Amino acid sequence: MSANLTALAYLVASVLFIMALRGLSSPETARGGNVYGMIGMAIAVVTTVINPEVVSYGWILTALVIGGAIGAFIARRITMTDMPQLVAAFHSLVGLAAVLVAAGAYYNPTAYGIADAGGALKLASRIEMGIGVVIGAITFSGSIIAFGKLQGIVTGNPITFAGQHALNALFGAAIVVLVVLFTIQPDPQWFWAMTALAFVLGFLLIIPIGGADMPVIVSMLNSYSGWAAAGIGFTLENTALIITGALVGSSGAILSYIMCKAMNRSFISVLLGGFGGDAAASATRSDKPVKAGSADDAAFIMKNASSVIIVPGYGMAVAQAQHAVREMGDKLKKHGVKVTYAIHPVAGRMPGHMNVLLAEANVSYDEVFELEEINSNFANTDVAFVIGANDVTNPAAHEPGSPIAGMPILDVDRARTCLFVKRSLSPGYAGIDNALFYADNTMMLFADAKKMVEDIVKAL
Amino acid sequence: MDVANSIDPFIYRLAIFVLAIFVGYYVVWSVTAALHTPLMSVTNAISSVIIVGALIAAGPIDMSFSKILGVVAIGLASVNIFGGFLVTQRMLAMYKKKQ
Predict the structure, then answer these.
(1) Which residues of A touch B20 (CB under 8 A)?
(2) What digits encode the pLDDT tens for the residues A150-207?
(3) Count of domains in chain A?
(4) What tens digit of pLDDT does each residue of B78-98 get?
(5) B53 close contact with A: CB closer than 8 A
(6) How far apart are CA A308 and CA A327, in angstroms?
(7) In A4-136, where do the E strands start and end?
(8) Same domain, A118 and A217
(9) What is the ipTM, given to two decimal places?
(10) Structural domain of residue A314, as residue ranges?
């Protein structure tokens, strides 16, 4: 295949990738889009393998089969609750693959046609390689920490220490210097030094970030994995990689932006970290009386309501209560109650996490609404049923000076009755008390989310 | 054409890159919020097109350090490609509308 044909095939693959993303504009077209993505990937791989320089089929096939089998196994077995961890783990693999490919190209630039007359890496490719390998390494180690935090291996609390930001800045500056040194003189010590420092910087950047900010971080690492791929694409002069990297990079950046906006936090303040976690323990709690109810009370109230909006949060995911919630919704519908679901953009540990969990539990997606679609409906709703969510309903967001001031919230307090399923009165990630717990029209349902919903189902 | 007047191919690649960012920007804003998790898993899968770089490193018949790196990178990228597309498929199959 001539170089022109190869380039055209890569172009076709890139267009198919764009169509894969385009398909996600609606659930009806999404499945078709995913198939376009697979075809695009197959075209890119086959085009590369039939290149006359690529001849070690045995090795390639072995790696493909082993990797593919592991990937397929994981994809089949993973629970939807664990999707954020899986995505973080996948980001780390893209980052590591980028580092390995950069190193592969560094040690054999001739294979990629990027060697100069002397057989060394040519000048223009060095800086691109430097940037690609650094972003790849940061993506790798940062994603590992994000994975550890989401999986509970590393504490979800922010890990902070004095001089942290200064240290990170120092590492950043050292990496820039090393990239410059590598560009001037592409010696292996510079290559590995910048890679190693970038690995360390990736760890340092993510450890101060608390659990509540994970949706932003997972999105940000998604973006980084794209920029790493694009950087390697520039190094290898490969347009498929450049285009795909740009698509993924901008996708992750948009998701990070949406998540930041949903928390009314600036991207910089998320990156600086330290938000949430331990502070929660020291929050002052109001000693106002709380109205607590039983499953029977909740069943009675909802059965006699004409409309119920269910507000799920991460607590529902942790308790694996989504199936029970759907069952409750079905029962209520049999009683003639209108049931809908309201999802806050940062409910869960990654963008869209609640939607997937509800879809898994067979909730029809046309009953599920985003914050701006449904928020005005709370005022003429009988019952808001909050399960596993807290900060995203906290009216403190309307008060200037509160840690979550300005954050868009679901106005569950506007509903005639507000039912809160929660284990205790403990504050959420933001570490502040929720005035709603003490409101006259609120009834607290103290129990494990799953158990409470199952009891309500029985009582219905 | 002398060197000073010819356009460096890097500029073309940069143009492709910048335009692709704009394409990504508009396409991703049109993605419905309900599908943001599948969006992340599918972008994960497609960014593993980095496998083409790994295939070239693993390509030569002779054993070398570069080849070992390439083979390992193929394995890592394959986990992502198969895992990413299949888990996306699995998730998307769950999004149903009741009649």
Answers:
(1) 14, 242-243, 246-247
(2) 998 888 788 888 888 899 999 999 999 999 999 999 999 999 999 999 999 999 999 9
(3) 3
(4) 999 999 999 999 999 999 887
(5) yes
(6) 14
(7) none
(8) yes
(9) 0.94
(10) 295-459
